[in-house]
Amino acid sequence: MNQVFPTPENGVAPRISIVVPARNEARNLEIVLPMLPAVHEVILVDGNSVDDTVATAQRVMPDIRVVHQTRKGKGNALACGFEAATGDIIVMFDADGSADPAEIPRFVEALTSGADVAKGSRFVHGGGSEDITHFRALGNWGLNALTNVLLGTKYTDLCYGYNAFWKRIVPSLELLPSDLAPRADGQMHNGDGFEIETILNCRIAALGYDIVEVPSVEKLRIHGVSNLNAISDGFRVLRVILEERRRRPSAAARLRRSIREAAVTAAEATNEPAPVFAVVDGARLDARLGARQDVA
Ligand SMILES: Nc1nc2c(ncn2[C@@H]2O[C@H](COP(=O)(O)OP(=O)(O)O)[C@@H](O)[C@H]2O)c(=O)[nH]1
Ligand SMILES: [Mg+2]
To answer: Do 240 and 143 meet the contact criterion of CB atoms below 8 Å apart?
Structure first.
C-alpha cells in the first residue's frame, strides 16, 4: 500500500501499521476499512470469526494483510498483530466502527513530536464516548484511579483501545508470545483478553516511556454487540493492576540493567570510561536512573 500520509517536517514519513483486531465484524469492516487513510499496511487479526470477516476485509481492501490469531481473546489478537507489523508506528484500531479514522493523524503527530506512546483518552478535554455505558464508565474510572494510586501514573482512561506507539518498544513490553500454547483448561491466559490495554498502560509507565494522552471520541459500534463482559473482564483488569504493581520494580530493574550494559558496551567500543548515558535506538538512556530521552 502506498502511504500518502503523513509527511512530517523532516521529510521522512514513518511507516504506519494499523492493527485491526476483529471477531465477527464483517458488516462493520465493510464500512470502516474503506475509510482508513493510505498507510504502509493494514493488518487484520481475525479471531476465528464465523461470519465473512476475512473475505469481506479482502474484498473491500484487497491489499490488507490477514493474520490469524493463535489463541483466544483480543489481547492475543493484538500481540499477534504487533509481532506481524513491519512499520515504524503501530496504531491499534477497533473494527466495530467505534474508532474514528480521522483521528489517526493526531496520534501519529504525538509520536513524531517525540512521544513513545500516544494514548487515546475519552476523558480529557476534546474526548468523549457515544458507546460506553454508565456502568462501564464507572468501572473504568475506579480501575483507572486505582492504577494511578498504585503505580503512580496520571492516566485518565485506562481501558481504551485506541492507542499508537513506536514498533521499537514492542519487545520491551514482554507480551505473551504468539507461539505460547493455549491453556489446557480452555481458559484464556492472563494477558490474552480485554485486560491487554491495562497491561500495555502499566508496562509503558513502568518502563519510563514518554506517554502523551490524545483526546479521542469513541463512536457507537455500528453493527453487533460488544464482546466485553463488564464484570468478568473488570475483574481480569483488577487482577492485572495488582500483578503489574508487583512486577513493576523488576521491570524497571531490567531496563536499568540493559541500559547499564549498553553504556558499558559503548565505553568499550570507544575505550573511554563508561558513559553515564548511552544512545540506544535513538533514545538517550541514563544508566543511573533508567530514564530515557529521544535524541535527534
Ligand atoms: N481477533 C479478535 N478480535 C477481538 C476479540 N474480542 C474482541 N475483538 C475485537 O476487538 C475490538 C473491540 O471489541 P469490542 O467487542 O467492541 O469491545 P468493546 O469495544 O470494549 O465494547 C473489536 O474490533 C472486536 O472485534 C477476539 O477475541 N479476537
Ligand atoms: Mg467496541
So the answer is: no
Residues with CB under 5 A from ligand 2 (ion): 96, 98, 221
CA of 91 to the centre of ligand 2 (A): 16
Which is the closest atom of ligand 1 to the Cα of 94? 23
Question: What's residue 1's pLDDT?
Answer: 54
Q: Which residues of 248-264 are buried (b: 16+ CB within 10 A; e: fewer)?
A: beebeeebbebbbebbe
**Percent of the chain having pLDDT more than 70?**
85
7-18 pLDDT tens trace: 455 567 999 999
Amino acid at 110: A
Ligand 1, CB cutoff 6 Å, lining residues: 21-23, 25, 45-47, 69, 72-74, 77, 94-96, 98, 161, 221, 226-228
pLDDT at 74 over 80: yes
pLDDT reported for residue 174: 96
Assigned CATH for 16-250: 3.90.550.10
Hey, what's the cell of 294? Answer: 529521544
**Extended strands (E) in 175-247:** 211-215, 217-218
From 42, 46, 48, 74, the mutation candidate for ligand 1 (largest count of ligand atoms within 8 A of CB) is 74
> Which of the listed residues 18, 23, 44 should we mutate to test ligand 1's pocket, taking the one with most ligand atoms within 8 A of CB?
23
- Measured CA to CA, the distance from residue 58 to residue 67 in angstroms comes to 12
pLDDT at residue number 248: 76
CA of 73 to the centre of ligand 2 (A): 14
Task: pLDDT band for 262, please (50, 70, 90 cuts).
Answer: confident
Give the ligand 1 atom nearest the CA of 225.
Answer: 15
pLDDT tens, position by position, 108-159: 999 999 999 999 999 999 999 998 899 999 999 999 999 999 999 999 999 9
